[in-house]
Design a protein that fits this description.
Elements: H1 3-10, H2 14-24, H3 38-44, H4 49-57, H5 69-83, H6 104-107, H7 109-127, H8 132-139, H9 141-151, H10 157-168, E1 172-175, E2 178-181, E3 186-190, H11 199-216, E4 224-229, H12 245-250, E5 254-255, H13 266-275, H14 290-300, E6 308-313
Parallel strand pairs: 3-4
Antiparallel strand pairs: 1-2, 2-3, 4-6, 5-6
Bound molecules: coenzyme A.
Coenzyme A is lined by residues 191, 193, 196-197, 229-231, 240, 244-246, 273-274, 289-292.
Length: 314
């Protein structure tokens, strides 16, 4: 295989192609679901009709002219690369960021990979006795992410394509208001966009996890819940009322000391999670509530937001 040629045809760097080639080698891939089963599966994965229509339009049928040999190679090897780390909980790039304006095959290549891997993840869940309802709810983050990406004019996908490999590897479980991320001795919390995070909903979700992980992953010993987020920046307390859900969530955690170099750039992440845009100028962002005004005023005053990590005992 000519790596330079493949990279040029995919519109990505040779290093990116070489990485997939090295990591996936000739490890086993996994088949996509039958096309006839795909609409029902997409529905269970909470994929909205507009996104589902695009995904069906670009389906990698054997003779499809949309699927060049390079795209087929990348799809197959990306599945193998993620599958090889089944059970792993680290962030993993499934492959290079593709030029997504070249049509549905390009735009959704990593969605097809996710659909193939969903079966692998379900089998892994079954091996651990995980209830099917939890499996589907966890994997249905696909639909939520696609919908958010559409709202973001497709700016969100580069992070999402890596994030969703965690679900595909059996590392992330959604129970109630929160998602729980296995790894080490800390269960990391993620907060999906699904309405307010009331303290009651958080408590109920934590209680579910306290039962779920010892039961289904008895070899793992979790001593703490952890979180890394823009939501844990104590500077938010300068702006938000004491009884806001975000401030009440913060009070659960003991924070690690702030290290500027650690974690993603919080100034970008607040734009992602509060405004769902990464490129709109500050003076054009909405100022509809106390949080939106706080985010913009803080940045316009020349201050920075901080990505903070914290934890509390299980
Ligand atoms: C985390 C989240 C659920 C908190 O929302 P919440 O429970 O409403 O939080 P609060 O009660 O503290 O909100 C205070 C105010 O900010 C507003 N607000 C909170 N999060 C907001 C968001 N992401 N976008 C816009 N406004 C938001 C609330 O509507 C509320 O305004 P109001 O007082 O005028 O009604 C919400 O921010 C969200 O869905 N975020 C997206 C996911 C995310 O950020 N995950 C963490 C990734 S690291």
């Amino acid at each position: 295989m000519d790596l330079d040629d493949t990279a040029a045809r995919l519109g990505v760097s040779v290093e990116d192609v070489d990485r997939v080639h090295r990591l996936a080698g000739d490890l086993p891939s996994a088949p996509l679901p039958a096309k006839a089963d795909a609409p029902a599966m997409l529905d269970r994965l909470a994929v909205r009709p507009d996104d589902a229509a695009e995904i069906m339009e670009g389906w990698p049928d054997p003779g499809s002219p949309l699927w060049t040999p390079e795209l087929r190679w990348l799809l197959d090897r990306s599945i193998a690369l993620v599958r090889a780390d089944l059970g792993g909980g680290g962030w993993l790039l499934p492959g290079p960021e593709l030029p997504r304006d070249r049509g549905p095959a390009w735009r959704h290549l990593y969605v097809y990979a996710f659909l193939a891997l969903a079966d692998v993840a379900m089998a892994y869940h079954r091996d651990h006795g995980v209830d099917e309802a939890v499996s589907w709810l966890s994997l249905a983050d696909l639909g939520r992410n696609l919908a958010v990406d559409r709202r973001m004019n497709r700016e969100g996908w580069p992070v999402m394509q890596a994030w969703l490999t965690l679900h595909a590897r059996g590392a992330v479980y959604e129970m109630g208001r929160l998602q729980f991320h296995r790894g080490g001795t800390t269960l990391d919390l993620h907060i999906p966009e699904s309405g307010p995070m009331t303290p009651e909903a958080i408590d109920a979700s934590l209680d579910q996890a306290r039962v779920f992980f010892p039961r289904h992953f008895p070899d793992e010993r979790y001593t703490a819940f952890g979180c890394g987020s823009w939501l844990l920046d104590p500077q938010l307390q300068e702006y938000l009322p004491e009884d806001s859900n975000i401030v009440r969530f913060q009070r659960r955690f003991e924070l690690e000391p702030y290290e500027e170099s650690e974690g993603p750039d919080a100034d970008v992440e607040v734009l992602r999670f509060v405004f769902r845009t990464l490129t709109t100028p500050l003076d054009r962002l909405p100022r509809d509530n106390v949080l939106q005004r706080a985010i913009v005023d803080h940045l316009r005053a020349g201050r920075r937001w901080h990505w903070r990590r914290g934890s509390f005992p299980i």
